[in-house]
Amino acid sequence: MESISTLEIWQVFFTRLWPVWLALAIIFAAAYQWRVRLGVIGRIFDSPIGLVGLFIVLFWVFSAIFADFIVLFDSLEQSGMYRRKPPGTLNTAQGIPYIFGTDTLGRDLFSRMIYGSQIVLLIAPAASLVAYVVGITLGLPAGYIGGKFDTVLSFLANLVLAFPVILLFYLLVAPGIRETILPNIMAGVFFIFPILFAMMIIYSRFAERPRVLIPSSILILIIGAWLYSGLVFNADPLGIVTIDPGELNIFAAVVFTTSPGVFRIVRGLTMDIRTRDYVAAAVTRGENPLFVMIWEILPNARGPLIVDSCLRIGYVTILLGTLGFFGLGMEPESPDWGSMINQTRSYIRLVPTIVLPPTLALASFVLGLNLLADGLREQSLKD
């Protein structure tokens, strides 16, 4: 079969990614211009390691956003004539090359790798964000108030953390569990926390201004109920907010396994920061405990939390890859990177490059997050 040269492969590769290069140039130029106002994020330009990590992470973010403009084939399109073909093989019927070759079903590896980034960036950051909201909502009062509330929550967190994470993850996404209502119950509990946290912010700021507090609270409850109905019950009346049952199961499992770790970090930071002079000054002014936790303690814990969030998203990405590799959670035809590695690993001897695209994609994204975390940690120490 016809094929293109190695040089032409890379030419097509870089050309197809033009939306990504353009978006990266705009973002980096704007961020450099406003780096002083961006705080610790803006100071990442002073860290070469962090800058490389940010570049890699944003590369995959924009690849996911502009996937429809980048790919050459549909990620599910199969071709019996082009099974397990090496990089550069030309589809003579369409006159388009398979940049990274094809898998066992004749599907384009480049297109599946790009579309796979959408799955990773949909679940890993979103689930980590909800886990952080859960951990912050419970960790702040546990560390600040203490008492029996802290004792009970700390015990429950340690109980979850006592289980091996991979084993617990495996159990939560097993087919037998997914067919029950347990994922919906877990999701129903976890998705309450973003609404609760938003209400805490509004109340702490406008407790003495009912004209602002009441309309803001009603708006949050309406928006929260709309999102909640779509995500938990798949009953959005507008048909906008929806989530696949398999993705919901994975989402709930990620939050369940990671939020206890976030809780412990937030609790520890709160117990340390509550002894600072500016917290004592806020208490002396007569500020309520909720205001002190949200506006005095939490902003001063942002450095460690931002660093941990990068590492945690990378950790969740590895967990998702592991699940995909073992065929758990996502649908079999899903282009997630773990499934791609599993589907292509048996043919390494025939086509040595067949497993490289998903493997390098997974490794590079996690590497980027780790480098970004190192850069942010380095800069946060200068605060």
SSE map:
Layout: H1 6-16, H2 18-33, H3 48-65, H4 67-70, E1 89-91, E2 96-98, H5 109-145, H6 147-161, H7 165-172, H8 175-178, H9 182-190, H10 192-206, H11 210-232, H12 245-273, H13 277-284, H14 289-297, H15 302-325, H16 337-344, H17 356-380
Antiparallel strand pairs: 1-2
Helix pairs in contact: 2-3, 3-5, 3-17, 5-6, 5-10, 5-12, 5-15, 6-12, 7-12, 9-12, 10-11, 10-14, 12-15, 13-14, 15-16, 15-17, 16-17
Write up what this structure looks like.
It is a single chain. By secondary structure, the chain is mostly helical. It has a domain of 198 residues. 69% of the residues lie in helices and 2% in strands. Strands 1-2 form a two-stranded antiparallel ribbon. It is globular. The N and C termini lie far apart (60 Å). The mean pLDDT is 88.
Determine the mean pLDDT.
88
Please compute the radius of gyration using only Cα atoms.
Answer: 23 Å
Largest sheet entry: 2 strands, antiparallel
Please write the string of helix (H) and strand (E) elements: HHHHEEHHHHHHHHHHHHH
- Quickly count the helices: 17
Terminal CA distance reads 60 Å
The geometry reads as globular
What is the total tally of β strands? 2
The secondary structure category is mainly alpha
Approximate strand percentage: under 5%
The percentage helix is 55-70%
Q: Largest beta sheet: what is the strand line-up?
A: 1-2
**Could you name the ranges where pLDDT drops below 50 across 5 or more consecutive residues?**
none
